Amino acid sequence: MGKHPEENESLVDTRKELKTLLCLKEIGLPQTATKFIDIDLVGEPFCISNASNTQLNTKVFEFTMNNQATVDTELLFDFQEEFGKWDKLEYKKLSPVLKKSLRIFLREHGVYPKPLRGHIVPQLKSLLTVDKLPIWDQDELSSMTEIHSKSLVHKYRRKTSPPCESPQIPNQDQKAQVSQQYRTAYPITYKFQQPLKSDENIALNAGMDQRIDPISHNGLDVVADTLAYQTIPPLEFLNQEPDLNAAATFSEIWNNIYSYSGDPYDIFYDKIRYFMNR
């Protein structure tokens, strides 16, 4: 069964509205403008003297859509050509949404139609009689958040922007102050086996000196498989009698080439690693 004429008409209107919304989103106009324009009228000629509100609003929409990449003097002359015959009556027929959007569009593309606090229609009409770009107010230029990257004011504002402060390298006194501050503000939670000198004095004064019992030979057997030299921090063993078998094995595999000479190119860590991997 075929669709009723009402359904076909509704479908066409829906598609038309969707197309309009997509175009508005693409050029940055508010979606509320969709009820004031007719996208089917884009490109259609009309007589200014008897133009309808929809035709005039659609003209603003068309101008904005066709000049997305136009800036500065070129945009000013295009505006004068398109709206040169417009008078107060034509601007009065425009929707407030389209009038405001047109002024914002000109500002963002480098054409300054005077301060935002002024009336829109006189500002737009004043652009029809100038032959060069109006001079921007510095405060308004600084407050602009959206400016076309190809416009002159965008390049000017980028050149006059204050440079970023270069980081200062702290001197030795500043480094010492920061180091001392970090030590007091963020104490280390790890308890080292060898206390600091200040900690030793505190322990002696408080009578807290404790005797650390040496690790037994059985204890060494327990941790032998953990590769003590690879732990962080390395396991520490107090002086004790070496295991005879371990001493004999060590004497068999040791070679003087593993001795650390102290030469700048003699890396002690590499020799230890090479010896341990045998």
**Low-confidence regions:** 182-186
User: How many beta-strand segments?
Assistant: 0
How far the N terminus sits from the C terminus, by CA atoms, comes to 89 Å
Helix content estimate? 40-55%
Order of helices and strands: HHHHHHHHHHHHH
Mean pLDDT: 76
Number of helix segments?
A: 13
As a whole number of angstroms, the C-alpha radius of gyration is 41 Å
Beta-strand content: under 5%
Instruction: Based on Cα principal axes, name the global outline.
Output: elongated
Structural class: mainly alpha
Account of the 3D structure:
This protein is mostly helical. It has a domain at 5-160. The chain is 50% helix and 0% strand. The protein contains 13 helices and no strands. The protein has helices at residues 5-27, 53-66, 72-83, 88-93, 96-108, 120-126, 138-143, 152-160, 172-185, 197-205, 217-223, 244-253, 268-276. α2 (53-66) packs parallel to α5. The protein is elongated and about 115 Å long.
Descriptive keywords:
278 residues, mainly alpha, 50% helix
Summarize the model shown.
The protein has 13 helices and no strands. The chain is mainly α and 278 residues long.
Give the secondary structure arrangement, pairings included.
Blueprint: H1 5-27, H2 53-66, H3 72-83, H4 88-93, H5 96-108, H6 120-126, H7 138-143, H8 152-160, H9 172-185, H10 197-205, H11 217-223, H12 244-253, H13 268-276
Helix pairs in contact: 2-5
